[in-house]
Write a structure and sequence with these properties.
about 170 residues; Immunoglobulin-like; mainly beta; three-stranded antiparallel beta sheet; single chain
């Protein structure tokens, strides 16, 4: 998937607005995206706490389950530990579900990388948040081996937040 016709320009802009590892990013997430007519935005803080790549990530993925396979040629695993703080601004008492599918890795060329089908390191970033809750856990992504500055997004096509994986 190419994010725009001018991928180099789009990727440079995304990298410019991306949060570095350890820097919290405040964003609004929408409750009921696409499924109900009444949607509501709620503030959330997302922080990438740790990024492991290459052999370190593969060691962690392989340790989780013997069923996890090595990445395909030219790709490598990236394991990312993330904290999400679900705000109390807006949303009332509505909950918000977090899944690894809400995150994607984007190569330097602007292509969204295929998602690995693996058991994630524990604790896995998955659960339901209520106002004031915090969730912390790991997700696993693929990036091209030669890619020096991959990015990660959270969100959907209408509201994406960008993070550096380097």
């Amino acid at each position: 998937m190419i994010l725009s016709a001018n991928t180099a320009k789009a990727q440079a802009a995304a990298a410019e607005e991306s949060s570095a590892i350890g820097v919290a990013r405040t964003t609004e997430i929408t409750i009921g995206e696409g499924y109900v007519t009444g949607t509501e935005s709620v503030e959330a803080r997302i922080t990438v706490l740790e990024v492991l790549r290459g052999d370190k990530a593969w060691d962690l993925v392989k340790e989780v389950s013997p069923a996890n396979k090595p990445p395909e040629a030219g790709m490598e695993y990236v394991t990312v530990r993330i904290r999400i703080e679900y705000g109390t601004k807006g949303g009332g008492d509505q909950s918000y579900g977090i899944r690894d599918e809400q995150f994607a890795s984007i190569s330097e060329s602007g292509r969204q990388c295929e998602r690995p089908s693996v058991a994630h390191p524990k604790p896995e970033l998955s659960g339901r948040l209520y106002p004031g809750d915090t969730l912390e856990g790991w997700i696993t992504l693929f990036v091209p081996v030669e890619d020096r500055k991959p990015l990660m997004t959270f969100g959907n096509n209408y509201n994406r937040v960008w993070f550096k994986l380097y």
